[in-house]
């Protein structure tokens, strides 16, 4: 059988990209834009809907961030692109089957859960990863049936990053404003019945080290119904080192000083930022969260770095609802190497290895958070994708292959059909997208999301 250069018109390069969030779309885009490369890319997702974190992670009142979807739609219209939604890895297709049916496989599955606090009581009823709450109010089918006790007046968020600000804002924003967004309908109804009037965010370090973007806090501070309360003494102490800070942290600290100076206005709701505070125990009552025990910290310099250290001064804060937001963590995929400690697929510059420090696996790659950990913003994944694609192309340079029927769109389609998989194409998604927008218009909101796989398939005229 005649061989042809990989990536030529006679022998296109066949690539499977797993995960249709930003990392997945940026990987597809960079591959498909190579003018001297004939490539066919199949983008897989376990849900019928594309866009991953943009659809299920970005807050419903942050629509500007979701405008990146327009770029992804352009990628989906490029020659050689296919979307295969509603396909679950490990169930509908195995890693070994992907390797057998494609020349290269790129995992872009992100980091789907939160890091743990590792304190007693963390698994009590009422203690939640922030990611599940975010996915819940964004209409993720796998999280829509979760229950959160919002009858408590105080919710506690452990962490002071952007996700912590998103969670706080959604808990405190007026229901009328949220009702105009694309928030899941069931979540809006539960939030309408919420008694939460105070959200306390715990940060183990000081005001000068706060991880949230200044804009994120401003978005809360400008809400008419909400006061942002900051300990003025803590901020004043931090301001002594303001001139030593990087510009971004300096501006943020100066903004916190402004909020502390202004003080509360008597608004009916409040966000309280508690810096230098670490949860040491979540206290339960009948298996449910009743309070959180907090140790006050002091900042100490160790090894040239400023770190928080417990002082032995403890307080207790009553609450029935706690969200941990101390960073994302990847989850393993069946048959794919995984670094449990780092929460990533072990790799060297995007080339997957058989364990940390192990041998490089041929033709298997990682992109995005599952490659480098949960750092950066959505756009950071573009740079990351370009870097991994560079390695992918280097690995096929000068190589030839015969036309193998197994490595074809028809072969993968036949295999999925044989297993009864209800594959959702990008054209199918466009139909669902139009239905969501139309339903939202009737309700006076941006879109009304389908929140179950069954309802999506039914809307497409298929059985689940």
Write a structural description.
By secondary structure, the protein is an alpha/beta fold. Helices cover 32% and strands 24% of the residues. The protein has two domains: 3-112 and 330-424, 3-Layer(aba) Sandwich (Rossmann fold), CATH 3.40.50.720; 115-328, 3-Layer(bba) Sandwich (FAD/NAD(P)-binding domain). The chain contains 16 helices and 20 strands. Strand 13 and strand 14 form a beta hairpin. The radius of gyration is 24 Å and the shape is globular. It starts with a strand and ends in a 5-residue tail after the last helix. 43% of the residues are buried.
Summarize the structure.
This protein has about 475 residues and is α/β, with parallel strands linked by helices. Helix content is about 30%, strand content about 25%. The strands form 5 sheets. A 7-stranded mixed sheet has the order 4-3-2-5-19-18-17, sandwiched between helices.
Give the CATH topology of the largest domain.
FAD/NAD(P)-binding domain
**CATH architecture type of the largest domain:** 3-Layer(bba) Sandwich
By DSSP, the count of extended strands is: 20
In terms of quaternary structure, the protein is single chain
Domain count: the total is 2
Strand content: 15-25%
CATH classification class of the largest domain: Alpha Beta
Return residue spans where pLDDT drops below 50 for at least 5 consecutive residues.
Answer: none
Largest sheet: 7 strands, mixed
Q: What is the alpha-carbon Rg in Å?
A: 24 Å
Number of helices: 16
| Strand-pairing-aware structural class | alpha/beta
Portion in helices: 25-40%
Q: How are the strands ordered across the major sheet? A: 4-3-2-5-19-18-17
Distance between the termini: 42 Å
């Amino acid at each position: 059988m005649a061989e042809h250069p990989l990536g030529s018109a006679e022998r296109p390069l066949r690539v499977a990209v797993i995960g249709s969030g930003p990392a997945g779309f940026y990987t597809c885009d960079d591959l498909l834009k190579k003018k001297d490369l004939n490539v066919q890319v199949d983008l897989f997702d376990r849900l019928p809907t594309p866009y991953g974190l943009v659809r299920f992670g970005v807050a419903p009142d942050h629509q500007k961030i979701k405008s990146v979807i327009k770029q992804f739609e352009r990628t989906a219209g490029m020659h050689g692109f296919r979307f295969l939604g509603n396909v679950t890895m490990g169930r509908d297709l195995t890693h070994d089957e992907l390797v057998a049916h494609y020349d290269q496989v790129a995992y872009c599955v992100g980091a789907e859960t939160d890091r743990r606090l590792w304190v007693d009581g963390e698994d009590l009823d009422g203690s939640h990863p922030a990611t599940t709450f975010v996915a819940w109010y964004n209409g993720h089918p796998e999280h829509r049936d979760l229950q959160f006790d919002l009858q408590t007046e105080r919710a506690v968020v452990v962490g002071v990053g952007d996700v912590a600000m998103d969670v706080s804002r959604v808990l405190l924003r007026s229901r009328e404003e949220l009702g105009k967004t694309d928030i899941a309908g069931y979540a809006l109804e539960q939030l309408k019945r919420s008694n939460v009037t105070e959200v306390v965010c715990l940060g183990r370090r000081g005001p000068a080290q706060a991880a949230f973007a200044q804009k994120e806090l401003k978005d809360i501070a400008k809400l008419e119904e909400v006061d942002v309360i900051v300990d003025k003494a803590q901020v004043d102490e931090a301001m002594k080192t303001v001139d030593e800070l990087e510009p971004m942290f300096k501006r943020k600290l100066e903004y916190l000083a402004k909020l502390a100076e202004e003080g509360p206005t008597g608004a009916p709701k409040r966000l309280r930022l508690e810096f230098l505070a670490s949860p040491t125990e979540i206290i339960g009552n009948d298996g449910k969260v009743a309070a959180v025990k907090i140790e006050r910290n002091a900042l100490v310099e160790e090894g040239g770095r400023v770190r928080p250290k417990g002082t032995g001064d403890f307080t207790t804060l009553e609450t029935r609802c706690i969200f941990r937001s101390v960073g994302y963590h990847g989850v393993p995929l069946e048959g794919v190497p995984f670094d449990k400690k780092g929460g990533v697929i072990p790799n060297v510059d995007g080339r997957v290895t058989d364990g940390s420090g192990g041998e490089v696996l041929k033709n298997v790659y990682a992109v995005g958070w599952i490659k480098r950990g949960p750092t950066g913003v959505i756009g950071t994944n573009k740079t990351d994708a370009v870097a991994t694609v560079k390695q992918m192309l280097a690995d096929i340079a000068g190589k030839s292959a015969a036309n193998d029927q197994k490595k074809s769109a028809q072969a993968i389609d036949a295999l999925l059909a044989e297993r009864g998989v209800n594959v959702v194409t990008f054209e199918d998604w466009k139909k669902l997208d139009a239905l969501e927008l139309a339903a939202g218009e009737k309700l006076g909101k941006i879109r009304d999301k389908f929140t179950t796989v069954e309802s999506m398939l039914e809307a497409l005229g298929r059985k689940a």
